[in-house]
Amino acid sequence: MNPFPDAKVYLVDDDVGVREALSWLLRTRRLLSDSYGSAEAFLADEVVWNKEPEAPCCLLLDVRMPGMSGLALFERLKTLPWQAAMPVIFLSGHADVPTAVDAVKRGAFDFCEKPFSDNALVDRIEQALTQSAQVIHQRRVQREWRQRMDSLTDRERDVMDLVVAGLPNKLVADQLGISVRTVEVHRSRVFDKMGVKSAVELANALRAAP
Amino acid sequence: MKSGRWLLWGALLLLTAALLSVLVFLAAEYELSRDQAQLEEDVATVAGDIRSALLRNVQTLQSLHSVAPSPNAWNAPASELLQTHREMMRLEWRDAALQPLSVRVSPFTPGVFDFLDREQAQPEVVQACEAARRASGPAYSASYFWPMRDGKGLELIEMCLPVAFAGKPQGMLVVTYALSGILTELINRDLMRGRGLSFNEADGTRLAIFSAIPANRRNLRAQTVLDLPGHTLILQLESPRRARGLFPNVLTAVVGLLSLALLVVLFLLGRDIRRRQRAEQDLANALAFRKAMEDSLVTGLRARDMSGRITYVNPAFCQMVGRRADELIGSGPPAPWWPPELADEYQQRQEVRLAGRYFPREGFESVFQRPDGTRFPVLIIEAPLIDAQGEQTGYMSAILDLTEQRRIEDLNRATFERLQATARLATVGEMASLISHELNQPLAAIASYASGMLNVLRDPGVGSLSPEDQRQAIERIAEQAERAGRVIKSVADFVRRRDTEREAVPPASLIDSIYPLVALQAKKQGVRLQIDIDPNCPPVLCDRTMIEQVLLNLTRNGIQAMPMGDPPAGSGLRVLGIRVARASPEPALSPGRAGPAWVSFAVTDHGQGLSPEVAQRLFTPYFTTKADGMGLGLSLCRTVVEQHGGALTHQPAEPRGTTFRFSLPVTPI
Fold first, then answer.
1. Is residue B237 pLDDT above 80, yes or no?
2. Which of A9, A23, A28 has the highest number of chain B CBs within 10 A, making it the mutation to test binding with B?
3. Interface ipTM
4. CA nearest neighbour of A39 among A3, A66, A21, A7
């Protein structure tokens, strides 16, 4: 039933009643959550935010808090390259609505006005977690792809570019001034390293990669 | 004016000069007449002297004859007599026939009788002796000129004296006198100094001169008749006029001096009068200056004597208390401007103040009353009134009318209060926002627990939620509800604090105080204000600034409900009506207060009116139809009105638009 068994929801709200209630609500939807009483407390827990998350996660952030505001925390997190892996949903009171709208325009996942329709909020949380999972997955694929690319030698990369352009081995050998046999060796090594079986597959993978 | 004065001065000088000259002239005349009188007297004295001397001579001659009865015996004493009497030229004893018996001639003038024979004088001797015989006493002949040898001559006169011895006539004794000798010998010479004495004929011919002075017409002359038996001689005394100065005598000098002194005194007096006139002019100028100053003052001035009676007031004071100066002057305590019920207090206060002789520099405040009963606050600054002798004669007071100052102070206070009210409203707005946040927290928590519980009910096997967890969740709901209750209570407390600031306010003054603002907004929107206040409205009990805010809110809403062109300008509907009237009690709204009267305030616009949807949500906080509205105005208005015990209602207006109406309780008496 729970699509995100290892997902984590981080709650940052100065009001303990709200934190506990939300945490309890999430439990009834089989979601795990960690609570923080303030933006500063969250920032102190660097393990959570200062490394790329591996499991889907999202951040519920109260706009108005004593000390560092939710908005300021959001600005701080936006500097992280993997920020999209931890979507932020703002919780706002009536008067903070314009602020929250502004935050969404600047990259927050959504905002939710208090008092919220709770299951709708949980639904948005799940959507955020889905996005988080996608981002995490994409980032992992990209990272692997970059590793494969990095493992290619210069000669192999030259061969790969020409193969992907659709040239037959003979023409590749002519163009690079090497023997057809050598081209074949390189080509098989490239296929090996990039984890593909054909030139078509390689071309598709390259097109898909950023 | 000035030339006339100089003319007067000239006349005065001329008159004084004339007086002086007349005085000098009169004095000279007086002296002249006195000299003349002296001269007359002297000549009379001289004549007397001569007469008595001649009489003595007669006696001497008679005695001579009685001593020497014979001519021979007579000779010696006769000669002796001639030696002592130089005036006698010749002494003869003649018989009855006038023949000389014995003759003696004066030894001092020998040769007188040499040139002519004595017989030439016989007629005169005869004449004298005839007269003597007739008179049986001495008698004189007329004088006659007796020439001498060298062309000279003497004027002589004969005196004949009959002599007897032992009762028998012895003949005649004839004495020849020289007139010049008489003059020389028989008079007191002291009188003659500087004078001329002579025997004259009646026609003025001089017969004998004792002393001569130069002939001058201006000489003084005095004549007297020397009548001798048988002949009369004229004796003339002549005296030159004495030379005199301008002030011939002390009298004139004194009078002159006195006149001069008089002139000087007159001059000084004139100068004094001029100085006095100038001083009077200066005084008049100073008075006019002071009067103008006093009249131009807006500060009232009042002087009182020691018993508190008014001795002086200036126009500003009269205007201030609304009475004429002549009504005020002389009036004593209680002063006519004292409010009657405060008169005793003022009287005491004044006595204490005056007894203590303490006059605070900053003055003291009081209240005066005009004849029409209106009162006004004043500031009185009092000081003792000291006259030129240093005696205190009373008190001087300056009175400032504080009405205007008070009005400005009131205005400032009202403005300040309005500002404060606006600030309070802003605070209320902020409060509302804060409260909404405060309430949102527990409500959010409650909602979360409720949803969670629903989830649990829908999916009993979820997670690791034990019944204990569920019980806890419900406890939390209760906790959070309680928390929300506390928030509401704190708001109620805040609002309740305002209850103490209620006061009695005439409805018209409420409208007056918002009128300028409303008029400004109305003018901007081309809306006409129609204000209708029932004059019989009693004061209402309210928090003035809050009710003003309500009125401002309603009127602003009303004006904003009529934007330009809707209703159109010519329709006569661009009118905002404000109506204040007594209202019957609204039992539905105040069931417990059937008695007290109410005043209803109605604000009517002729805008589009309220749609049913809008009307339904009208008083919901944060509900607004305006782009920039907060949605708090009407809900706050309702809260305020309800706090006052009234109600805020609305109904459609005729022919279009909406009327908002609320009522306030009348101040209980």
1. yes
2. A28
3. 0.71
4. A66
pLDDT digits (tens, 9 = 90+) for B147-202: 887 778 888 888 888 888 777 788 888 888 888 888 888 887 777 777 888 888 77
For chain A, which ranges sit under pLDDT 70?
Answer: 1-3, 94-95, 117, 209-210
Best CATH choice for the domain A8-143 from the list 3.20.20.480, 3.90.190.20, 3.20.20.70, 3.40.50.2300: 3.40.50.2300
Identify which of B440, B450, B455 has the shortest CB distance to residue A114: B440
Put residue B438 in one of left, alpha, beta given phi > 0 → left and psi -120 to 50 → alpha.
alpha
Three-state DSSP at B472 gives helix
Query: Strand A88-92 relative to strand A110-113: parallel, antiparallel, unpaired?
Result: parallel
Contact B447 A64 (CB under 8 A): no
Range B298-401 classified under CATH 3.30.450.20: yes
* pLDDT tens column, B442-495: 888 888 888 888 888 887 766 567 788 888 888 889 988 988 888 787 767 656
The residue ranges of every structural domain in chain B are 36-239, 298-401, 407-498, 502-665
Assign B1 a pLDDT band (cuts: 50, 70, 90). low
Residues of chain B with pLDDT > 90, as a percent, come to 6
Q: Do domains B36-239 and B298-401 have the same CATH topology?
A: yes
For B364, other C-beta atoms within 10 Å of its C-beta total 13
pLDDT at B646 over 90: no
| Gap from A187 CA to chain B (nearest CA, Å) | 53
Parallel, antiparallel or unpaired: strands B364-369 and B310-313: unpaired
Q: Three-state secondary structure along B320-385?
A: HHCCCHHHHCCCCCCCCCCCHHHHHHHHHHHHHHHHHCCCCCCCEEEEEECCCCCEEEEEEEEEEE
The reply to whether residue B449 touches residue A21, judged by beta carbons under 8 angstroms, is yes
Question: What CATH class has A152-204?
Answer: mainly alpha
Distance CA A22, CA A27 (A): 9
> Pairing between strand A57-62 and A88-92?
parallel
Do the Cβ atoms of B447 and A28 come within 8 Å? no
In Å, what is the CA distance from A25 to each residue of A22, A64, A130, B484?
Answer: 5, 22, 19, 20
Q: Which CATH class is domain B502-665?
A: alpha beta
CATH topology of domain B36-239: Beta-Lactamase (3.30.450)
Please state the pTM of the whole predicted model. Answer: 0.37
